[in-house]
UniProtKB/TrEMBL annotation:
Record-linked InterPro entries: GH (IPR017853), Glyco_hydro_5 (IPR001547), Glycosyl_hydrolase_5 (IPR050386)
Protein name listed in UniProt: glucan 1,3-beta-glucosidase
Oligomeric and partner information: Monomer.
Function as written in the Swiss-Prot or TrEMBL entry: Beta-glucanases participate in the metabolism of beta-glucan, the main structural component of the cell wall. It could also function biosynthetically as a transglycosylase.
Family stated for the protein in its record: Belongs to the glycosyl hydrolase 5 (cellulase A) family.
Compartment(s) of residence: Secreted
Species for this entry: Penicillium argentinense
Reaction(s) this enzyme catalyzes, per UniProt: Successive hydrolysis of beta-D-glucose units from the non-reducing ends of (1->3)-beta-D-glucans, releasing alpha-glucose
Amino acid sequence: MLLGSAFLVALLGIPSTFAIPTRGAEKSKYIDWKTFKANGVNLGGWLVQESTIDTTWWNTYSGGADDEWGLCKNLGSRCGSVLEKRYASWITTADIDKIAESGATLLRIPTTYAAWIHYPGSQLYSGKQTTYLRDITKHAIEKHGMHIIIDVHSLPGGYNGLTIGEASGHWGWFYNQTNLDYSLEVIDNILSFIQASGHPESFTLEPMNEPADNRDLSVFGTPVALSDEGAAWVLKYIKAVQSRVASVNRKIPIMFQGSFKSVNYWSVNFSQSDNLVFDKHNYYFEGRNTTSENLPSYICTDAKATPGDGKFPVFVGEWSIQALYNNSFVLRERNINVGLAAFHKYAHGSSYWTWKFSGNATVGGEGTQTDYWNYEEYVNRGFVHPKNGDVTFCR
Ligand SMILES: *[C@@H]1O[C@H](CO)[C@@H](O)[C@H](O)[C@H]1NC(C)=O
Ligand SMILES: *[C@@H]1O[C@H](CO)[C@@H](O)[C@H](O)[C@H]1NC(C)=O
Ligand SMILES: *[C@@H]1O[C@H](CO)[C@@H](O)[C@H](O)[C@H]1NC(C)=O
Ligand SMILES: *[C@@H]1O[C@H](CO)[C@@H](O)[C@H](O)[C@H]1NC(C)=O
Ligand SMILES: *[C@@H]1O[C@H](CO)[C@@H](O)[C@H](O)[C@H]1NC(C)=O
């Protein structure tokens, strides 16, 4: 996702200690996204750092950088300890219990490539991300039966020029075979992590997020953010990912976030039998004349369009209720439930961006960003009751 001019970046751990005993006797039940639906949340700001998510933390450690790459560079030798502390504290098992109590059954977890590989020259930190990831997902799966989407939020060289794709102004992932090879090493290591988790049936693998090669960032969030040539490179990667997954465990679903192109644009290039689910991001804070008042009509229009041609299931991996104009406190509860209900009814559910969000940047209308992005606060206020979410708004 992209907020004004600042975004997501990330960090995770290195594979090598994925020694988790398998619970062999347990019957594994793999999900079929064609029939599976879930409401969930993203764990943003945990293993990927973003300037907008936690203003106080960012101001304390970034040294004025706009991305995690710069934050780590500015922190120098302190980067590791600052980030390890973040991994240990921003999301804990208590958060997972609270998420489960709210009725959510899915976690989408952004990671940087540096969680999975050492990439020469990278400023992104490779530490114990996978240890934290293992502990949190084990808890979520064993205690609450949750489904986990592991999201690769950046790739070597950078794939969208944003803070979150590796670093601001980095597009070096495109058309670079070396970087593609490193990317597939990321996939191999995630597959090892999933296979060693004891619960391979509880994971979906999302190999990238919001790829874009258009250097005009004002078109980010629209179909032209990714050129046809760029899309062909993305497709080459996704096909290679499919073949890696198939060689290890073809029952692990692949979730494909195809930038902001329609599902129909891509679906022709995949076979009906592929174990594939699309991820479409539906945001309202820019690009359209949205207000808190008219948000349900935009949400419903998006929800109905989300499935595309119906060849593959589609999940809404990110969304939020910040509108461009006239944001209103009193309309939040309605809007959150309209989105939960509509994306569940017309698509395969959604994961809100994001569980914790304390960023205080200004918005049009009442409050600041934290009032429209912080799902935990909606749970605290008793706003979340998707079963009562009303899709009559969508008729
Ligand atoms: C956001 O919080 C920071 C301190 O963390 C403060 O310096 C800044 O003025 C605040 N911005 C707004 C819009 O409230
Ligand atoms: C590919 O990326 C690597 C790493 O950034 C770089 O060293 C190399 O020059 C790039 N190759 C090409 C052909 O651009
Ligand atoms: C998908 O397949 C169509 C039809 O064969 C082709 O024209 C198009 O270029 C392919 N898309 C990509 C992104 O390669
Ligand atoms: C938003 O409203 C303004 C003023 O009515 C109009 O000029 C503009 O075209 C609208 N933008 C979109 C994306 O509909
Ligand atoms: C926002 O609210 C103000 C005051 O009610 C109103 O004048 C204005 O037209 C609204 N803006 C939009 C885009 O609806």
